[in-house]
Records
---
Amino acid sequence: MVNVDTVYQRVLALANKEQRGYITPQEFNLFANQAQMDIFEQYFYDLNQFKRIPGNDSIYADMTDILEEKIAIFHDSIEVTRESYGFDLPSNYYRLMQARATHDEQTHVEVEKMTHRELLVAQNSPLTKATLERPAYYLKGSRLIVSPNEVTTLHINYIKAPKKVNWTYVVVGEKALVNNSLSAGYRDFELHPSEETKLVIKILGLAGITLKDPALYQIAGAEDNKNIQQEKQ
């Protein structure tokens, strides 16, 4: 995890303002969550790109290994039961990795992913029709529609979305000081610790746009581009 208070203090220091009101805690939380999701979603685009090119023998420098390590933080699993309309995915679901059905109370068989149209076509032939031994599903929003209907329990492995960041504070005099108690709703970034610098840069860029400070978001943009080029070399 990345400490949200550390990022907040660095953002304020780099913005060269003594008064915390320049970037308010409310604004910071909005920028922080946007930055976290931008970095998180970029993992999957980058992973797809780096898988197309040869890696190297070092796990410390292979970008595919590095990205998979960062994504692994968000791996989760859950068992879900059928509702009348299908299987509901958890509220923090981002991407589905695998679904397995319980068959004869002992065997777990992988459920094949299809499009809605593919499943309809498959159901028309005895050779391809979904069965308990070879079930299939398609995604409908945040719901899995599984065939055959006799499948009542699924064990799913998925990637969860990061929880919302929240820098909470108390006002002492004219200053806002961090209140990192869980009861106040304080929450750190869930990203890998190596993302701290990238978070600061992205938040500064977002703050610069909102504050109409071209120099601030140009500097942040230049740093962000430099980091991207270094990763892709």
---
Amino acid sequence: MQLLFTILLSYLLGSIPFGYLIVSARTGGDIRETGSGGTGATNVSRRAGKMAGVLTLLLDALKGAAAVVFAKLLLSGVENAAWWIGAAGIIAMLGHIFPVWLRFRGGKGVATGVGVFLMLAPIAVLLAGILFVAVVWFTRYVSLGSMVAALTIPLLVWVESLIRSQPDSWPVIVSTFAGSLLIVYAHRANLARLISGTENKFQ
């Protein structure tokens, strides 16, 4: 019952459509009809301004972090808790990308993933964040920076585990790897536009 409740709570937290709600409150419009059609911070900033985008980023990251924190509290003492805590984070990301409230059309999972990964591997997220800024600075493609940074995180976690001799890091390595693949999958349309040269650049 604990596991079921944790999974459900993680999904419901992740599925809160902050970007949709902020744009709806500010403009009365549907964020999914703008730009990439996603409910994430980048698309929100295009529709409702940069402050709205920043607020969306923070709230989306917070719900991802909250999912992991609640999982740690609820699953304390449960067998294989580290694996289930990682799974809870991934489920929160799935909730953001496929929210039941918006007919399963949400965002790309990046900000929510940042919140999840920060709770699981803060050092790796910090280093990946630097890489994200560098990629976006030189290319002006937020989607490219997001995918590159996401794919780097599990590698950084693995390197950190070797440096610190932490053999119990596999739950975090696997969770961050699964989350990075989920982010890339959610960006599949962006990837196609990057290849064709039609992807929007960040202004």
---
Amino acid sequence: MTLIVGIVGKPSSGKSTFLNAACLTNVKVSELPFTTIDANKGVAYVKETCVCGEMEVKDDPKNSTCVNGFRFIPINLLDVAGLVPDAHMGKGLGNKFLNDLAKADMLIHIIDVTGGLDKTGKAVKDGKKSDPYEDVLFLEKEINLWFKDIIEREDWSRFKKALASDKRKIVEELFKRLSGVKINKKQVISSLRTSGLENKNPASWSDDDLVLFSSKLREISKPILYAANKIDKEKSLENLNSLKEKSSSPIIPCSALAEHVLRNYDKKEIIKYVPGSNDFQIINKDKLNQKEMELIQKIKENILKPFNGTGVQQILNHAIFRIADQICVYPVTEINTLSDNNDNILPDVFLVKKGTLLRNFVGEKIHSDLAEHFMFGIDARTKKRLGENYELKHNDIIKIVTSR
């Protein structure tokens, strides 16, 4: 299953700029609310140290790229329309936003940390700043209530009573109701347990019980990482520190606009910049006018140095490796040369959930036919044989042996 990361936030917070910066897309951006109506898709990359250095080989990546010893692995981003209070009731573009959001496995919440926008994405009047923490609270609330609305559709009261006589059906029936929101039965079970409703008769569930269950299900099935965008602006650092005091969740500062500027100059071969770096090298100074030179120097001094990068790559990496709990696995055909059948060295790397077993990896990521004929794997480092129930480790390099 392909992992999809949703980019969410209120209008004008910088969601589309983040997508453009991460994916080098050309999605329209504007200070006007609801510039994004239809969901925008893009391919971004997570960055991890490549095993080519450890194994002392020159690799030939096919499904990813290797730059200066770092492997960049593709992931899917989805930028949806801005969310406003009462979106779950259809306000703004709420219904469209939430329907698009159903496809995502996890969310990155882009917060305008300047406090310069109200909850609808409009500039605040009279210079009065808003509290970015309110954005955290209202967005979580809207998605939680959206889950609750989905569960309550089609006569919830009668549904509860029908389950009262057989509580064993609650997981199956809740799963059916939520099947369009990309959840699984394990997540339903875990949410029942953490909300204390695992052994409570569904007929006696109160509205508060349902709100609690919906909240836990959202936390488990669509976890949120917070990105404090526009970090170089006035009041941003003060607001970031306040956010960190109020929230127990990770909050990563970033400047999506700065990342987009640097990546575009790198694409034009004016500078050499590797995403996630805290510096860049000017390689074609003649193509920069005085204003452009001042701009990139300002980015270096005000963003790259104090924050150790623009934050965009750090956010993507944290989302995939820490929150989605993914690891990297390199399958090869030739154990000694670390190559495939075409002599490409370390050609592919796959992101898989930590805890994935070898046989499942073969069927899900390589080919289902190979899983049927799977015999064993071989660890490229130790040359040890690995059985079908071997739990994959980060940066494993494995040869798959089949009966055909």
---
Amino acid sequence: MVDLDISPPEGLTVPLWRSLVLNFIDRVSPERLPPLELTSKPVDVGLMAGDLISMPWYRTVFGNIADVVSPETLPPLQLESRPVDVGELLGDDLDRGWWDSLLRNLRDRLAPERQPALQLTSQPIAAFGADASLQILDWSTLLSGPKIFLKDKPKEVSPGTVLREPEAPVAESAPVDRVLLATRMQLGRDLGRSRFRRRIWIGLAAAEAIFLVVAIFKFQ
């Protein structure tokens, strides 16, 4: 760890007369330092951004024409790292035709790829009505183990009182959120419409594929 020093610099505590004298001495007889020795090799970064902006327009035009006519020949790129297989790129996927996408969707629908079973290392947590509101979970739900319910202490009854049977608690109906109910109904309708449209598109793709196959065998 580096010890951070947030204290003000020593120059703030120097008196004014002393600062003037030091500046006058540095001006009259500056300190002679040894020449700077560079141990690193400079890197050619090309034309700086400031020089490129200050360049006149006709030089940039001729430079662009020269790059088009006779581009600079660069040495081959040497990769020192090992490439990683990332699968199909997004640009290659977008360049394909729409029929390829339909056939792949049909293939995934009929014969989906078999993947290994998901292995969960953590236990599921009870939501406690997370569809309506977000609440803090109880520690009893996060701890794994049997729950122990302790008995209540018996109440002391005076000899003159009459014991009555406790009435059964009336279950209160939870209030229904109309906005949440309407949102859930709208989501169900949207899902139903999307399934219907998906079946139509799959049917059209299957009909087109059958038509193409029949046309190929008929007109050979």
